[in-house]
Design brief:
With about 375 residues, the chain is α+β, with helices and mostly antiparallel strands. It folds into 4 domains: about 150 residues, BirA Bifunctional Protein, domain 2; about 70 residues; about 80 residues, Beta Barrel (OB fold (Dihydrolipoamide Acetyltransferase, E2P)), CATH 2.40.50; about 40 residues, no CATH class. The protein contains 11 helices and 12 strands.
């Protein structure tokens, strides 16, 4: 029996991205957890740009410090970022979050102690304690974290908003044609490309063919595809990685534009730059911090926007930022590339390994240091 296939079947389901991280709380981990929760409640996360508010299963307002005090003895903490592609269609995300966490409780077989905050400008953070309802360490299967939670979230959004219509899917694909980031069309082209990276614009329908042709012409304009004949293009071997980097750059530019949106003295686009310490000839910059935020909420990566003395505004990725916690808006900072070079200790390691068949051990190091000390003493005696 022939079965008709929905050509948009892969696009019907509402997309939800879930990122997860397991964070150890022992040692300095608890201090890091406190800092993380302060930042997820930072200003500018609500629809109107106001401060975020933690909430839980039963309450719309959870005290951060009180909730953390209960977790002081926990071994670890689960962090989730749940980002529904159509999250903006929800007037309030709290009911969706509570239903998702209730589904998770059913799946793992225990009540969960969690808090969340709604971010309308980035992902949607959830923080989960590592204890079950019996006070034991909570263990969650890797597959469930990788796939199960996302599937649960997709099911709920589908129930709330319904599957996408043909018109909505076609509108989304049209919007992807000119984007300077990795898109679903690119993934389809890469998947269908031949071993030599040759992609075809041919498709089952006129609309699909027009979409693929339009996207291939965009990639050609970006220098990421070369047309060969009427309907074939050779894709750049690093197409996906390049488009991801372009997307990240676009996100950074939008972050800088948001930072200046309420200011009357926003610099020209040409004067808004991304500081790259690894670039050839990179120099130190000094300037005033106008904004600090999280560039990666799941991994605690921070950024600064610095109005530097060179007359430009620099976006600076500072990583975890553990050593600059006191820096705030208006502070003066000096940003410089890390200096790397061969140190005396590096030379010693190489010498010890070379004298021991390529192996470096503590015992070999001690023998090396003792021999060096004796040689120095002998040299001093001979001079005397």
């Amino acid at each position: 029996m022939l079965v008709s296939c929905d050509r948009y079947a892969a696009f019907r389901q509402r997309r939800v991205i879930v990122k997860a991280r397991l964070v150890a709380l022992r040692g300095q981990g608890f201090d890091g957890a406190k800092a993380h929760m302060r930042y997820v409640e930072r200003d500018g996360t609500t629809r109107d740009g106001g401060r975020g508010q933690l909430y839980g299963a039963e309450s719309d307002k959870v005290d951060r410090n009180a909730w953390l005090d209960q977790a002081k003895g926990d071994r670890h903490q689960f962090r989730f970022i749940v980002s529904a592609e159509d999250g903006a269609d929800y007037e309030d995300l709290k009911p969706l979050t509570r239903r998702l966490m209730a589904r998770m409780e059913e799946d793992v077989g225990t009540r969960l102690d969690w808090v969340a905050v709604d971010h309308f400008n980035t992902g949607h953070p959830h923080i989960l304690r590592s204890k079950d309802d019996r006070g034991q360490d909570l263990i969650v299967a890797r597959d469930y974290i990788s796939h199960g939670l996302r599937e649960r979230a997709c099911e709920l959004v589908d129930l709330d908003l319904g599957p996408r219509t043909d018109a909505a899917i076609e509108q989304r694909l049209r919007a992807e044609v000119g984007r300077e980031r990795l898109t679903s069309i690119d993934r389809s082209l890469i998947r269908d490309a031949e071993a030599n990276g040759l992609a075809s614009s041919a498709a089952r329908g006129a609309f699909d063919q027009a979409i693929r042709t339009g996207r291939l012409k965009t990639l050609e304009r970006l220098g990421l595809a070369t047309q060969l004949g009427a309907a074939h293009w050779r894709l750049a071997p690093d197409l996906a990685d390049t488009l991801r980097r372009m997307g990240e750059r676009g996100d950074i530019i939008r972050t800088m534009q948001r930072a200046y949106a309420a200011r009357d003295d926003a610099p020209a686009i040409a004067d808004q730059v991304i500081y790259d310490p690894a670039a050839p000839g990179a120099r130190a910059i000094v300037g005033r911090i106008i904004e600090r935020g999280l560039s990666d909420e799941i991994n605690d990566r921070h950024y600064l926007i610095v109005e530097a003395t060179d007359g430009r505004s620099h976006y600076v990725d500072i990583g975890r930022g553990d050593n600059v916690g006191a820096l705030g808006d208006g502070a003066i900072a000096r940003i410089a590339p890390a200096e790397y070079g061969v140190r005396d200790v590096d030379r010693t390691v190489v010498n010890v390994a070379a004298a021991n068949g390529g192996r470096y051990t503590i015992d070999a190091r001690l023998r090396h240091d003792q021999a060096a000390t004796q040689a120095f003493a002998g040299s001093a005696c001979s001079q005397a």
